[in-house]
Amino acid sequence: MENGQAFFINEVLMDLSKEKRYRLLWMSGDGNECWWIDLDGKKRIPEPVTSGELEIWAASGRIVRAEDPVDMMPMNEGQKSRAMRRYDVIAEAVKKEPEIYRPGERSALLEEVAEKSGMCVQNLYKYLGKYWKGGKRPEALADAVGKRGKCRDYTKGEYKRLGRKKREGAPGKVLEPEDFRHFSGTLRKYYYTTDKLTLEETYDRMLKECYCSFEETEDGKRKAHLKPPEELPSFMQFRYWYRKNKDTVAAVKARDGEGGYQRTGRAVTGFTERKHTYPGAAYQIDATIADIYLVKENDRNAIVGRPVMYFVMDAYTRMVTGMHITYRYPSWADAVVALDNAMTDKDEYCRRYGIELDAGEWPCAQLPTALIADRGEMESRAADVLVSGLGIRLENTPPYRGDLKGIIEQHFRVINLEMSDLLPGKVKKDFGQRGTRDYRLDAKLDIRQFTRIIIRCVLFYNNTHYMEGYRLEPQMRSMGILPVPRDLWDFGLRYRSGALMSLPREKVRFTLLPKEEASVTERGVAFHEMLYTAPEAEQENWFSAARIAGRRKVTVAYDPGSTASVYLMLSDGRYIRFTRSDLQGREGDVTLTEADDDHQVDLDRKARHEHEELEQKAELNDFIEREAEKAGKMAREAAVPGMTKTERLSKIRENRREAVAEETGVQADGNANGGANGDAGKRAPSGPGVKTDAPELNAVQKLIRKQLEERLKQMEDPR
């Protein structure tokens, strides 16, 4: 700093003798009165200094100019709003310079401000300190992102219970180090295992093992005694601790194994199109079982099963270069058929199925440089012909790592999506639920008809499908190439080898009404524990998407005086009115306050019942475990020495016939064959000359017995 150089308001000076930085706040015209503030200390009030002192210190090298430490970070609307509210409190005082810097006059100014604002003087000093140290800018009074609140050591337990007020009768306590040990131990024992228990199940196990005692009652039962609610950690506390301390990668590896982590959890930082830079650099081949049941061509009543689909795809262009559909399970022989299809002209192949191709519609009939497959049929020694006979480099992926050939794995998903649920015999996810029709009985397509459909799907994919995730090269962009397999294939072959205004009512209401966040769920738009729906959302499959991909947040406008409807604006500018659905069973319209009150009543009832439920659940879990132990003991005592597993399994059908026969005897003979001796399953002797105390069977009983005997015969002879 040169001698005699002027000093400026708000600049930062470093005092090398104290190793502190100061901000110059104000200077009088003659320089006899200056005020600066320590930026590195905790003091919030400025200190006096003169310009003469500053000049002397600058000449001696004691002070130098320093970089301003204030970070001009962008703020959100909430931060800006809080900063301006705080600045409005002290604005009149800080404008009175130099009075605000002088101690006596500053006290009087702050007393006036405190009287007007209702704040204590000490808090005003906090605002002043932040304002001066932050460069005399209102934005300096904003809260720093990520630095709000007090940092606590949760391992010591010397703090009050955090969170919202606990409901009466609900679990919740001030956590102690012992609770944290229970948390971590239970998670290691039950959660971080391949059993994949949920957090709720893990929490129940923890309560049973660590917060519950059992006593034997006079009737031999075990009674569970769960600690009082005020001595139990709540599930929310348990979940919060888990989320705060979890190691996501370690959790996935522990629950899914290393293979599962590599398939679904590892980072995905590369792109196949960057590794393979021209068509034919590498083909990927794989097989999958189609999600549909087929019938025989010559017998439409005979259901054959699900076919196997083979696809061969180019790694650079994503072009399907070959395919094959068969009933046989994946094998080298069928993989060869798919490869052969990839290497031959497709006109004749499609013509066999009654499909005529346009010129160049499926222009794939070449050999690749490399073939990528999994460790299935390509592990066969017969696959050596690819290397020795065709000169194709074979690359097998590691076990359980189908993700390494993700292009073709993704194509299987696309093909199954293209096969609409309207196809007869299509596999449905709701199969097995009560009242659901068995989709296998709907099978009507034969394998030839199915192949025709898949060929059409492949042609649509190759020539029309827009791949959003494909990374186009600069030359492709300049030439207007679309990320469509056919376009990429052709590119690679060539360059690589007034007044009154009327507005819709929905828009007006959306603009004027208050707004809050809502969630799009599988049951509708959830807002304040109520559900809303609209025809537009159902047509666009909002709720189905939420069930598949998870919930998402939207902003809705609502009328506090009526919960009959809410309004939502779409990204394309459309406004939609959502009306209350009937899923919650409420009749009539209520205000938002009434709806919230009803919900609070429900929560209070649940809280009062929760402890009893947890106690009973612990008792139930204990009963199940003891029954399982008892069954295991009985099995060990009844074990026949020397009996092999094969012998046990081979007698299943015989044992079933005997069990059914015993049931049949009970139903046919009633209590007459039961008696006090417990021989309920034994049938009384019958026939000429044999006396029996059993009553004669009536017509209904005889009919039931006949039907049971016929069913037994069918079970013994499935043909």
Strand order of the largest sheet: 15-16-17-20-19-18
Number of helices: 23
Structural class: alpha+beta
Number of domains: 6
> Could you estimate the helical fraction of the residues in percent?
40-55%
Q: What's the Cα radius of gyration?
A: 39 Å
Name the quaternary structure: single chain
Biggest sheet descriptor = 6 strands, antiparallel, barrel
Unreliable stretches, pLDDT < 50, 5 or more residues?
268-273, 399-405, 498-502, 667-692
- CATH level-4 homologous superfamily of the largest domain: Ribonuclease H-like superfamily/Ribonuclease H
Ends apart, CA distance between termini: 105 Å
Q: CATH class of the largest domain, anyone?
A: Alpha Beta
Characterization of this structure:
By secondary structure, this protein is of the alpha+beta class. Helices cover 41% and strands 14% of the residues. Helix 2 packs across helix 4 and helix 6 (199-210) crosses helix 20 (592-638). The protein is extended.
Protein traits:
single chain, 719 residues, alpha+beta, 6 domains, six-stranded antiparallel beta barrel, five-stranded antiparallel beta sheet, 23 helices, 20 strands
Describe the structure concisely for a colleague:
The chain is α+β, with helices and mostly antiparallel strands and 719 residues long.
